[in-house]
Amino acid sequence: MPAYWISNYREILDADKLAAYAALAGPALVEAGGKFLARGMPERVYEAGLEQRSVLIEFESVEAAVAAHDSAAYQEALAALDGGAVRDLRIVPGA
Question: Residue 49's pLDDT is what?
């Protein structure tokens, strides 16, 4: 069953750190089997929607998404981020 990695960026504190993170994280997650489905600012928000950058990545399973997160390559990306953004990250199983 597929799983989805959902990140919401509540606040970007350091654009340079975010850029360093993105340069490492994108390739690490693709190499781990992730497929980027959406990323960017919302075109429209409804109800309690927030104007926040969001990223949606599909993996083949929850286990694959967790392994991607815990991989050495992604941990290197997180070290580069080093507090440069306040994010909400969750892994959700597909229906």
Answer: 85
